[in-house]
Specification:
2 copies of one chain form a homodimer. Chain A is of the alpha/beta class. Chain A has 2 domains: 251 residues, Carbon-nitrogen hydrolase (Nitrilase/N-carbamoyl-D-aminoacid amidohydrolase), CATH 3.60.110.10; 223 residues, 3-Layer(aba) Sandwich (Rossmann fold). Chain A is 37% helix and 19% strand. A 6-stranded mixed sheet of chain A has the order 5-4-3-2-1-16, with helices on one face.
């Protein structure tokens, strides 16, 4: 019977870059047409980039969407391929909202418009704020098939009373073309896969699913476009994280085409590593930075951040700076130097020891004049610890301003949770690479990276984590073992469990209620630090970006 | 005919402080009962504080709400007064959401529960994320009157298809008891007043409106509880920003009770000043800080911040630090000293000049060793300017850690908009007091403060604004005059106008399209700085907190 050639244009748009995005769309469309595609499908809001937040309601922004869409319509006059593409359309007059829209275009005109009808408003999504939901679900007949369309959340109807796929299926639609900007987290691919299979079977429809790749601020998009037939089999899969036009010849008369199973690297260290590489590359590139800089402490976090940055940008665009201080071990710079050599990145040493001592002398002198005796006890105070971390931040920011380099911060999720980090110190920078990765995952990813090539020195993998802001300090002086801590944090942050519930869940690990309460309290108390963090690349289901907590908060438990 | 004694308990709860909030509620209830109140009404979520964001869906948090509510129910066994109070109730099983709830309690039992049915999800509100909407609007007969209840947004039905007041009115309700946590901005009181009058007349109901006072992170609540009769006349008004139990004897048979008009200070400098005083006091107190510290630059922003802080906390809890640098004018510390003396606050001088020069010498030496010639041209680079600002931030944070003081930052909305501020420098701190106030408003408020008592030296009011990070620098070297700038910013940020539309609106001021485009571009470009700002007290309709913009953003216009 029938064969249809489908082009899945898994592109990486940039928010607000209308000319760049349009060029990508027209190029992929021309390519698809040359290759004989009957239809080329682009992601949700490919015209504008996604998410655009309040920009969705600026008149000039909506006008630019219309202008780009006009160009796409014009392009289809000269070609055979039809196009499905996402953009921002104007909303009803006076509503103050716009539409998250899809257009099916062919032969120089728009054949169908679909407005997203389920507007996700939870976690990292806030679409009810910006968009007016669609209320109609039109279909069209194409190549003898009745076809419907859907925009992202319209597929995820299980928690809504409105069921877009059911409406389309009742209208006789056999194929649903779905455009998406579905962000990555380590469990997303499996959930998405299960949903597509379930929905295809439930409504007896095939689903052509196209998702964007790349990243935008905190959010990473993994692509993984696919085609699921009405039996719930994935008959085609595009790769994860890779931009491109992926073509599939769909033989509709084939009864049992071979099903392709989901890659077994889903959620694995290799996948998360790749996601972070994409996140770093896009943040740096889309914000037009040529070069980056980061502190190398000799610890595992900065080592992993450096290897991700080098893999994302090439080592020539990454500068590592070691800033030994009064309490730094010899290993801190020796191991960092070895790391930098292994990665091929530029490496510099700017010691803070003397700067710290000079500054501290000024501070102490100022206080002596006032009759105070700060620091005179020989004790290293919190103020003195933070001063060291902040002098490193100062050094990196000077470098940033002087050489136009984006500062990458190196803190992980366990540290950000516990406040084991210094505002304006190690938190100073433009992008936090590992901030959604627990410390135990940091080790996992480092070991993964070393499998192909041992770039991270063994000494860094083996040493006890330490901030080195006091003599002989290690993280475990003040924190529970990371294996335990991370499990408490996962249950508290991602599963929103109470300390009591965590205590029960971890009974076998014999964690005390006191430890759990202290951890929970530290997480709540340090909300003020995270409020001032740069964007943090999201890789877990509940990242800081999608978690909203008050700073002023006396609740304990 | 009938007289009813109403107690409007305009309280200031603290988020998560269940025992403290309960004590306030029981105290006001006992007081109301002693004074013969028939009904004592508390604000929305008075039990838990508002807003609580994701806490609303933690099991233990909902349990604490239930426990407090149980105590209130128990308290009504022994008294005559009925109570209306707001709290968080559990949602339907499996919904993952809770309810923003109201209970009418008397004689030891709950007579009516009302779940908020319109969940504001725009600007500073995100309630759809946390709550499940109510679907019923029960009424009860009380003192021979049919009465309905409403939770905040349920009054504001004009942009929703669901009309809670209409439903209640059709059920015969003559009085609506409405509980609120309606945040302050300079135009809020007028809008609220007009709405209450319009709705009372439209539905032929009297409205007993109780709102919370105090502040929570970025949001300030102004109280202004009131009673509007069915003819749309405000027959009673509680004061703004003042915590207390306000009692009104409502004579329902009185045909034309005198209407009380809204205070004419609405939106005035005095009111905004008072709002900021409340914001500072509550943030400091609720976060359990004893003392604060701030930099005094000799400029108008730090002078106004200091006077607000002294009025909020008492001058003994505010330390002003002047940190003269290489390019500081003599006035910077002399005027600051006079300001501090006038306010009665502690004042210290910690010069950064020598620290800056020493540190810069290190930086330059490091670069010389690498064969670079940074700074050798005698030009003062951006890196050097920022270094000075950051050394001041370092100094204040050292003080903060050393003495347990919260750092107040002093930047205004015009500066934050334009990025005329330094990350980790003057932006370093726990609360930004003036960040939602344009520069021209800063002057207005300073002049207002000086009316009663000339605390801000005339020299500070008169000098040209300058960051003093280069010789002879003034803001107007790089920025348009503030009168023009602020008008562009207001249209761009608050009214979401495009540069073209702003050009038209400001035709009479003869502002060039180039200037407007540059301003718009600067606002967009500096999103990354604001992302790392501390909470910023909200006083305008569109504050940074309610504005969501991407950092990565190539849209211009």
């Amino acid at each position: 019977m029938k064969k249809i050639r489908l082009g899945l244009a898994q592109v990486n748009p940039t928010v607000g870059d209308f000319s760049g995005n349009l060029r990508k769309i027209l190029d992929a469309l021309a390519q698809g047409d040359r290759k004989g595609c009957d239809l080329v499908v682009f992601p949700e809001m490919a015209v504008s980039g996604y998410p655009v937040w309040d920009l969705a309601n600026r008149k000039s922004f909506i006008d630019e969407n219309a202008r780009s869409l006009g160009e796409i319509v014009r392009a289809t006059r000269r070609i055979q391929s039809a196009v499905v593409v996402g953009y921002v359309d104007q909303g009803p007059a006076g509503s103050g909202k716009s539409r998250n829209a899809l257009a099916w275009i062919s032969g120089g005109r728009i054949r169908l418009r679909q407005y997203k009808s389920l507007l996700p408003t939870y976690d990292v999504f806030l679409e009810e704020i910006f968009f007016k939901p669609g209320e109609d679900h039109p279909t069209l007949v194409w190549k003898g098939l009745r076809v419907g369309t859907a925009v992202c959340e319209d597929l995820w109807d299980e928690n809504y009373s409105r069921k877009p796929l059911q409406i389309l299926s009742r209208k006789g639609a056999k194929v649903i073309v779905a455009i998406n900007a579905s962000p990555y987290h380590r469990e997303a691919a499996v959930k998405r896969d299960e949903l597509l299979k379930r929905q295809a079977r439930r409504y007896g429809v095939s689903i052509v699913y196209v998702n964007q790749v790349g990243s935008q601020d905190d959010l990473i998009f993994d692509g993984r476009s696919q085609i699921v037939n009405e039996k719930g089999s994935a008959v085609f899969r595009a790769p994860a994280f890779e931009e491109g036009l992926f073509i599939y010849d769909w033989n509709l008369s084939e009864k049992n085409p071979p099903a392709i199973s989901l890659s077994d690297t889903v959620g694995a260290a290799s996948e998360i590593y790749q996601a972070l590489v994409v996140g770093v590359r896009d943040y740096v590139t889309k914000n037009r930075f040529e070069k980056t800089v980061m502190g190398l402490s000799g610890g595992i976090d900065s080592a992993l951040t450096a290897s991700i940055a080098c893999d994302a940008l090439g080592p020539e665009r990454v500068l590592g700076v070691t800033m030994p201080g009064t309490y730094s071990s010899e290993g801190s710079w020796r191991d960092s130097e070895e790391l930098a050599r292994n990665l091929g990145m530029e490496f510099r040493t700017y010691p803070i020891e003397k700067k710290y001592e000079e500054l501290l002398r000024h501070y102490e002198e100022e206080r002596r004049k006032e009759g105070k005796t700060a620091g005179a006890s020989g004790r290293i105070t919190l103020a003195m610890e933070n001063l060291q971390a902040r002098l490193r931040g100062l050094e990196l920011m000077y470098l940033s301003n002087d050489e136009g380099r984006l500062v990458l911060t190196t803190g992980n999720k366990s540290e950000l949770a516990m406040g084991y980090c210094t505002l304006y110190g190690d938190m100073a920078g433009g992008l936090c690479v590992l901030g959604d990765l627990y410390k135990t995952d940091v080790y996992r990813l480092a070991r993964f990276r070393n499998q192909s090539e041992a770039v991270i020195p063994e000494a860094i993998l083996k040493k006890a984590p330490s901030a080195e802001l006091r003599p002989n300090q290690t993280d475990q002086d003040t924190l529970p073992p990371y294996e335990i801590l991370d499990e408490i944090l996962r249950l508290y942050i991602e599963k929103n469990k109470t300390p009591q519930e965590i205590f029960k869940a971890l009974r076998r690990e014999k964690v005390s209620m006191k430890t759990i309460s202290e951890v929970a309290h530290a997480v709540d108390h340090n909300e003020y630090k995270r409020r001032q963090a740069p964007p943090i690349l999201r890789v877990t289901e509940k990242a800081w970006f999608g978690r909203r907590m008050p700073i002023t908060n006396r609740f304990e438990g």
